[in-house]
Amino acid sequence: MISSKALIDQTGISRATLNNYIQLGILPKPDVQSLSASADEGGARVLGFFPDDALERVQAVQILKGQGLSMAQVAERLAQTDALLEVQELQLETAGSRPAMRPIGKSNQANQARATNTASKPFSDSLGNLSLSLDTLTHPAYMLNYNFELTWFNEPARKAVFGFATAPSKSTDRNLLNLLTRPEVCLTMEDQRSLVGLLLQLASSRISYESLSKLVAQSDPDLMPLLEGLSSEEQAQEQAVNEVEFFQRDSRGQIVCYRVYAVYFREGILVVHAPAEERGDDLVNFLARRDQVIHSLLSKRLPVMTPLAVLVADLQNSVRICSELPPDEYFALVNQIWATMGPILRKYTGTHGKHVGDGVVYYFFPQAESNYLFNAVACADELRQAMRKISAEWQLKKNWFTELQLNIGLHEGQEWLGSFQSANHIEFAVLGNTINQASRLSDFARHGSIWATKDLISKLSNDERSRIEFGVLRKSQENGDRFVASSYAQIESIIDLNQDKHEKLRDISQLAVAEIKRVSNTRLY
Fold this sequence. Notes:
The chain is of the alpha+beta class. It has 19 helices and 18 strands.
């Protein structure tokens, strides 16, 4: 018996390709066995085992494919009783020219050079080797984030894969684990499962097995068997441009082999399906231009209704500080604040919204690996700590008593997310009341405080709330001021909204809020 891990390691095929060989009947279904945590296979939980001749059969597939046979022809030949004898003869004849096995993401010149149908056009002819872009891609291409939600697709993908007239408006309805099971999908049930398995394999290099399991269980528990093996092996090897094989049936029921190219970005994975007989040099070269590709992708991102948390931070007394500092020093200060905030916001998966004067807006979206609501709270607390260090540095530098403070407002909701763009700049924007209320809450916050809405805090888990010290300072002439922990208050009960200076806060007068005093152990959840 040979394990699936050993088979993949020795042949260089991907997990998705191995699953395809099983579906095509080239290999039998593995005997799945549970292993102890101290097993030699890297602490695997479960592992599939194949007959001893599995290695020979995979090598036979590569030899037959190298001779120009389609996967349907390969499967048919191997199904014959004398297939193994014939393959052994082929192995002897071609031993000196056997193509090298390649891991995911590696180029395979032997496969690129194999014979093609004379009616097929070269890849460079069909796409244009000098003007290739997302707009000129004639093959299915789509972008999914790390929640498996579709964020962009081209027309070939809509027609050949998804089949819908328009994409669903809600982000949760764009989950590919759900989309690929809709009636209008152009793939057969078998091909749907095969594609999901391939996408799960690609995502496993960025998403933990536990998070993938949670995503699949929430979307379609029947797909859980596709995760078998992912937990028992090292994460998928990630290249600049990854390449795996995908087999599906065409309209005539014939098995067609595709090369699926995948490029990883912070925002998600770009996936392109290209026929296996076409050379992919131009496409790979285009996908390798990461900055251009992601800029184009973000500019084409589909507007979507999505849950989110909004963080608005504003520098208190910025007008007075600006008047006290020379222009070059004031710009240096603001740039230092932004430069300090950037890594912290990225750490907690914040997405840049826009700069408003010397304030910032950041969005936090659902994540596979962490709770976006807690990320927003923990990020705000870390920004406050970083601001205290900047303030102390400038007090020493300028020998002044001015204290630099960021006033932060946090709110959550479900709003439309889109982007505004110019020739050289893309800015994400949220349309709806959530950002307006977060901005007003930032105006309400004073002296470097953090205020969050009851809606946000109440949606945290019990464990997450236990790590946050929050509440409201209650003022009483009889009993004095007292901070009441784990409580909320409406804005109108905290300040006098009849004062002209509080006029712009009147539209959030009944918003229930609490002050975030401290966050313990601000690890990502």
